[in-house]
Amino acid sequence: MTEAAIRMIGVNKWFGAFHVLRDVDLEVAQGEKLVLCGPSGSGKSTLIRCINGLESHQSGQIAVDGLALTDDPRDVEKVRREIGMVFQHFNLFPHLTVLENCVLAPIHVRKQPKPEAEALALQFLEKVRIADQAQKYPAGLSGGQQQRAAIARALCMRPKIMLFDEPTSSLDPEAVKEVLDTMEALARDGMTMVVVTHEMGFARQVADRMVFMDEGQIVESAPPERFFAAPRHERTQNFLRQILR
Asked: Least enclosed by CB within 10 Å: which of 38, 103, 112, 163?
């Protein structure tokens, strides 16, 4: 059997007295496109931040591509090498050009020669359709272009898994389409993806599985056809009534 891309068993996470993740069990297959949805404060962003060690979990087990995620910084580093992450805010270095943003990690983390890193970065910038912006600084780009640059930067590390934390929530409608089109192309290429989003049209089209979270728990997990047409749980039904009206 193929090792799961991500496996979470009995994961718990607290922020002080707030129990943000409650006994979460989740498995993501290699190549699977999983969309996480749910109300604000349900634990979605915390869950994916725990997957790459940006947040530590207090109990339970997390493994990424067969690598156990522990408190040991060496384990965290190994896991992060397999994961690309795109945030709501682009987090590009403003004093570096788009190309320089893209090659920084490959050169310093993967020890890739600069010419090789730049050639690869230009390939990914072409893939996300902003190769002509490579020499510009982030301030000279639109929001959609900056988010696509952030996606290209993540891809330059050749990750096995991509995590997206509400990547379109701060964008205007035209930019949202640009970014979602880029993500759809990644999905077609077979990338393993976990996406936190309220873009239900994207979810219907791209997701292999929908996961609904509420109060730190996974309430429902189903293929999109059943999730949208016949959700089983009342909390899921109420959420979809509000978000789809």
From this structure: 112
- Write the single-letter amino acid at 209: R
Task: Convert the pLDDT of each residue in 1-15 to its tens digit.
Answer: 457 999 999 999 999
Q: Are strands 161-165 and 83-86 parallel, antiparallel or unpaired?
A: parallel
In one-letter notation, the amino acid at residue 119 is A
Q: Which of 71, 59, 64, 83 is nearest to 10 (CA)?
A: 59
- pLDDT for position 2: 58
What is the length of the chain? 245
Which residue blocks in the chain are alpha helix, DSSP H? 44-51, 73-80, 98-108, 114-127, 143-155, 173-188, 200-206, 224-229, 234-244
Tokens read off for 165? 């934390």
Task: State residue 99's pLDDT score.
Answer: 97
